[in-house]
Backbone:
């Protein structure tokens, strides 16, 4: 088990060493980068907004139920909802969701190219397949995931605002005041810093499992599943590490 894990980590490092190099043709790289940003980033905006909207609404309801005390001001509902979105949901939980959507997409795409020998054909032609296929995916995700995190925060707050406006659990003015109260700007940067790391984990781990897929369609499916599991575990592990380093 340990020996196999060390072997896989070595394969991963060697693959990243090949992928993270200067592209031979910048025009081809930017063309591929735009395509990957559209496929992996822009196409994920809809699901991010929808999930964040409903999650912000649920958070607001739960906070209102749990902070119903005469000793706690009602604006704490808005403040707690905002901080929960900034600190954990819009960065960590959203990246776990993206690991399932985007990570499986990357692993299955590269895995299919591997089992159909398209990657071998690129290697025969003298193309650095890792750099050509993987680097644009990593750069696209690292650039666009922080944008998705910002969208998630705003849509989550809007979801909470809609709940307060419709149900009138607390006055909307109190919720707005809570959103603005005791705002710590570093919480925004904290979520963005984490999203950079998580985006790299999702794209690189999924690319690794796809690149080392062997066999047929069944192995591609296994590679996709393994990439989601491994990415999720690493995201949770690095969430603990980054929280300890950045918020200590």
Residues:
């Amino acid at each position: 088990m340990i020996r196999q894990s060390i072997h896989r980590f070595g394969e991963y490092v060697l693959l990243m060493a090949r992928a993270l190099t200067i592209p031979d043709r910048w025009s081809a790289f930017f063309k591929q980068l735009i395509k990957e940003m559209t496929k992996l980033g822009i196409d994920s905006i809809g699901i991010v907004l929808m999930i964040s909207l409903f999650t912000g609404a649920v958070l607001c309801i739960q906070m209102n139920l749990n902070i119903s005390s005469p000793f706690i001001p009602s604006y704490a509902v808005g403040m707690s909802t905002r901080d929960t979105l900034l600190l954990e949901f819009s960065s960590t939980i959203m990246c776990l969701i993206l690991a399932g959507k985007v990570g499986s997409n990357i692993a299955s795409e590269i895995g299919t190219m591997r089992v159909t020998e398209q990657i071998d054909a690129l290697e025969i032609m003298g193309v650095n397949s890792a750099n050509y296929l993987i680097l644009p995916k990593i750069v696209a995700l690292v650039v666009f995931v922080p944008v998705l995190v910002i969208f998630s925060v705003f849509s989550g707050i809007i979801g909470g605002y809609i709940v307060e406006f419709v149900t009138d659990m607390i006055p909307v003015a109190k919720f707005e005041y809570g959103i603005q109260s005791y705002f710590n700007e570093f919480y925004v940067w904290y979520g963005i810093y984490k999203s950079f790391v998580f985006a790299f984990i999702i794209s690189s781990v999924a690319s690794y499992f796809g690149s080392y897929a062997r066999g047929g369609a069944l192995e591609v499916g296994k590679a996709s599943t393994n990439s989601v599991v491994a990415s999720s575990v690493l995201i949770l592990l690095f969430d603990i590490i980054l929280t300890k380093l950045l918020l200590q």
